[in-house]
Design goal:
Layout (H helix, E strand, L loop, with lengths): L1 H20 L8 E3 L5 E3 L9 E10 L2 E11 L5 E6 L5 E7 L4 E6 L6 H15 L2 E10 L2 E6 L3 E6 L5 E7 L4 E8 L8 E6 L4 E7 L3
Antiparallel strand pairs: 1-8, 2-8, 3-4, 3-14, 4-5, 5-6, 6-7, 8-9, 9-10, 10-11, 11-12, 12-13, 13-14
Length: about 210
């Protein structure tokens, strides 16, 4: 009986270790030869444009809305500002692949975990070029895995970026969903977290 119990515990421990070490897999996708060195998110790439969205944020039970404005300042830096509908500033960041500056943030959001999460989300959302590690195909999708464990999903017909999935190597951590009619601008964007209570919706404000 004791030997049987030890064997059961060893098998259970091995199975748990196997599951925990298993890397994230894109369901039903087939690996193909890399066709790109860098994948591009062109939705915030034009330095001549101000990208303006009506924004709704749900974070740890708190809800807030306002106007989100993003501007590509140069080849590497974006500046983004979130205000209330009446123009009061909620946050003001400058962000690039390797730098981050908080110009302003309201007291309710001025917590390290919130700032770091928003930094990572907006860095992913605004980053134009990401180095490709692997390429996959699934039905009419081309999927590029980048070195930071993010997966960029493109519609093979329209060539629009439809989704970015960030993983923690084993499972989905954050999903960015894009609704766009052209490759250079997304009318609607959703950011959904699965490990914390954070959801952000962006809806285009028409000129």
């Amino acid at each position: 009986m004791q030997k049987l119990m030890i064997r059961y515990l060893l098998i259970s421990a091995f199975f748990t270790l196997f599951i925990s070490c298993k890397s994230y897999q894109v369901q039903d996708a087939v690996s193909v030869d890399n066709s790109l060195q860098f994948v591009q998110n062109q939705y915030f790439s034009d330095v001549s444009l101000d990208y303006v969205y009506k924004t709704h944020i749900e974070i740890y039970g708190n809800k807030m809305g306002g106007i989100f404005i993003a501007k590509r300042i140069n080849d590497s830096i974006h500046r983004m500002v979130l205000t209330t509908d009446f123009g009061n500033k909620l946050l003001d960041f400058e962000i690039s692949e390797n730098s981050f500056k908080v110009n302003f943030i309201i007291d309710n959001l001025d917590k390290k975990i919130i700032i770091n999460t928003l930094r990572d989300d907006f860095r992913t959302l605004l980053q134009v070029n990401s180095k490709v590690f692997k390429t996959y195909k699934r039905n009419n999708e081309v999927i590029y895995q980048t070195e930071n464990n993010a997966y960029y999903y493109f519609d093979e017909v329209s060539r629009n970026l439809t989704k970015i999935i960030k993983t923690n190597k084993r499972k989905e951590k954050v999903v960015f969903t894009f609704d766009s009619k052209k490759t250079t601008f997304a009318e609607n964007i959703n950011i959904q977290h699965f490990n914390i209570k954070l959801k952000i919706d962006f809806n285009q404000i028409s000129n």
